[in-house]
Amino acid sequence: MNRKRQNRATLIGGSAVLMWSFLALLTTMAGPVPPFQLVAMAFTVAFTLALVKWLIRGEDIISHLRFDIKIWVLGVGGLFGYHFFYFLALGNAPPVEAGLIAYLWPLLIVVFSGLLPGERLRSFHVIGALSGLAGTYLLVTRGGGLSGLDMNFAFGYTMAALCALTWTAYSLLSRRAGHVSSNSIGGFCGVTAILAWSFHFLWEPTRWPADMLSWLAVLGLGLGPVGAAFYTWDIGTKKGNIQILGVLSYAAPLLSTLVLIMAGKGEFTLTIILSGLLISGGALLASKDILIRPQP
């Protein structure tokens, strides 16, 4: 693959990380909307926007939805499966431990990317990923460490591990499906919305956003973190440097924390500075291929 095109695709994929950094703030602004309802509403917005785009451009909508069943299982399994296991994990285990287990997926992407055809896993990719994991550990535990894994929450921990494995598998297998257009994400969002609405009506009470700001937050989720982010991530995983994307993904919780601080919902601490150094240092190390142009 042309190096310049790969670098461009990597940057596009990296923009998903930037959009995901607004997930926590927008979720907070949406108010006490139940998790599956919020997922359903956001994915409904994402699918509606894709549908409007296809109609305005006069595109053949059916062609964007006509895929092999394996592609549908991959796409819907990745988008809906991740959120399904994530919320089960948070509901059945302490949030700090569950969050850390679920956020092993960037490291898993880096490690298992070496199994993909044409990919070469280098030592600095692994070291960068471990540095990012260490920074995320500091950030999530606030420098206090873990109290230990309580096996009474084994089900929740298992769900968190399945969450990490689901997104890892989706990201890596998407590269094997590089021939499939990123327009497919629109269809995946539509089916994910239907499944999320179904689980919401089965398990949750319905609570709508209380005011205009909350509705705008839901719209923002559908436009960015739960909308465009999946398109750009799809481009990155299919055409970019997947090891670098994996390490860059550790920036999401750091950026999310900084966004919350700027919005007045958090405080700046030494732990955030240290985690920032570990995460950014790991990202720079893993991106050595892009940052340092090889000598002729």
What does this protein look like?
The longest helix is centred in the last third of the chain and has 28 residues, at 212-239. The protein contains 14 helices and no strands. The chain has one domain (3-290). α1 (3-20) runs antiparallel to α10 (212-239) and α1 (3-20) crosses α12. The model has no long low-confidence stretch (mean pLDDT 84). It has 296 residues and is an all-alpha fold.
Write the layout of secondary structure elements.
Layout (H helix, E strand, L loop, with lengths): L2 H18 L2 H7 L5 H22 L12 H24 L2 H8 L2 H8 L10 H19 L12 H23 L7 H20 L8 H28 L2 H7 L2 H12 L7 H17 L1 H4 L5
Provide key terms for this protein:
296 residues, mainly alpha, 14 helices, 73% helix, globular
Secondary-structure content class: mainly alpha
Number of helices: 14
Report the sheet with the most strands, covering strand number, pairing sense and barrel closure: none
- Overall residue-averaged pLDDT value: 84
Number of E-type strands = 0
Radius of gyration: 19 Å
Instruction: List unreliable stretches of 5+ residues.
Output: none
- Element order, helices and strands? HHHHHHHHHHHHHH
Overall 3D form: globular
Total count of domains: 1
- For the termini, the CA-CA separation is 18 Å
Report the sheet-strand fraction.
under 5%
Helical content class: over 70%
Offer a quick outline of the entry.
This protein has 296 residues and is an all-alpha fold. 73% of the residues lie in helices and 0% in strands.
